[in-house]
Design brief:
Layout (H helix, E strand, L loop, with lengths): L1 E2 L4 E7 L3 H12 L14 E7 L4 E11 L2 H8 L5 H5 L1 E8 L4 H18 L8 E7 L4 H10 L3 E5 L14 H10 L27 H29 L7 H7 L13 H30 L12 H27 L5 H18 L1
Parallel strand pairs: 1-4, 2-4, 2-5, 5-6, 6-7
Antiparallel strand pairs: 3-4
Helix pairs in contact: 2-4, 5-11, 7-10, 10-11
GO molecular function, one term: protein-macromolecule adaptor activity
Pfam families: Adaptin_binding
Organism: Ophiocordyceps australis
Length: 353
């Protein structure tokens, strides 16, 4: 299948490391990028890809950054929305140099990924390629915090590690080839692809179902507490709130309303009906939960339950999508790096909970 209009790759480096960016494009495409002016900034280079499933020529946008914070702000502006929507991969390229500036660039790229592209729910490729840099574990941790997979490239290095996983430029190509370049940038995973058993982060769907149940129970408890408070606030022998709304708790002369035996019986009947309604409502909620949450427990139009479904439960499902997206993003990473990225994502989810 020929991908005729693929999404773009954004390759970013510090302006002091233009030669490193040029080297990366050369090793990735086997051709040297040509500058459109005095530098590579703003130029485009093509990356041909051919797999068993598709062929495509991916445009690689090259950018050089002198001020990472200003660069991130420009990419998060309204004017850059169409640019972000066209991206299918973000690749940060760096080499030996000013480590503080490199770390700042990585953090700001992570900010664009999080605020501009949707964070873990974005389905594109996110890589940080370090050429001839030392301290793999430190760079892996820094890149994981920015939501990037760290790939180290060194001259003469093996293409496979001890686990048979690809390394260096081979890993970069593998990650890019595995992407779906026709998929919409804002397309989300549907429920059928959310296999919680394979998340491997120590949390599964049962944990979130428990949270869903807790949300329901808390809501019902609040409703019952409110009803009991209303009962306690109504003096014995006086009509309940609906009668008070019509006549007021006291007559116009300022004397407390008198109640005969018939009124007392009406009060008792009203209380019995309220108790029966609450009991029946709770039973409906129980049946609704057993049947997938379709019932409602308020005896009316179910608006309260719909509010719960529309707010808290949606948040839980968004978090499940985030964990699934992190799992997909870390599919080709090494074990240690995958664990770091997973730990960060789970920490974010639990903070939101």
């Amino acid at each position: 299948m020929q991908v005729t209009n693929p999404r773009r790759i954004l390759a970013v480096s510090l302006d002091t490391q233009e030669n490193v960016l040029s080297r990366a494009i050369k090793e990735l495409t086997d051709t040297v990028p040509e500058a459109t002016s005095s530098s590579l900034a703003g130029s485009t280079h093509d990356l041909p890809i051919k797999t068993s499933y598709y062929t495509a020529t991916l445009p690689v946008w090259l950018d050089l950054v002198d001020d990472p914070e200003a660069w991130a702000a420009s990419f998060l502006s309204d004017e850059a929305a169409e640019v972000l929507a066209a991206l299918g991969a973000v690749v940060v390229v760096f080499g030996q140099g000013d480590e503080e500036q490199i770390k700042l660039l990585l953090r700001q790229v992570g900010r664009v990924l999080d605020e501009g592209l949707g964070g873990w729910e974005w389905d594109g490729v996110r890589l940080a390629v370090g050429f001839d840099v030392a301290g793999d574990e430190e760079w892996e941790e820094i890149c994981a915090e920015a939501g990037l997979e760290f790939v180290r490239v060194a001259e003469g290095e093996e293409t496979l590690n001890e686990f048979g996983e690809k390394m260096g430029v081979a890993r970069v190509k593998e990650a890019l080839e595995a992407n779906d370049w026709e998929m919409g940038a804002d397309q989300l995973l549907d429920d059928d692809t959310q296999d919680s058993d394979s998340l491997d982060f120590g949390y599964d769907r049962a944990d979130f179902e428990g949270l869903r149940q807790a949300i329901w129970n808390a809501s019902l408890a609040d409703d019952e507490d409110d009803a009991e408070a209303d009962d306690a606030a109504t003096p014995v022998g006086r009509p309940r709130a609906d009668s008070e709304l019509e006549h007021g708790p006291y007559n116009l002369g300022g004397q407390e309303a008198k109640n005969d035996a018939g009124s007392s019986q009406e009060v008792q009947d009203t209380k019995n009906q309220d108790a029966a309604s609450r009991k029946d409502g709770n039973a409906q909620v129980g049946r609704g939960q057993d049947e997938g949450g379709e019932g409602n427990g308020d005896g009316h139009d179910g608006a309260g339950v719909e509010d719960i479904e529309g707010d808290d439960v949606d948040k839980v499902e968004d978090m499940m999508r985030k964990l699934q997206a992190v799992r997909d993003a870390g599919a080709g990473m090494g074990e240690a790096q995958r664990r770091r990225m997973a730990a960060r994502a789970v920490a974010e989810v639990m903070k939101e909970l």
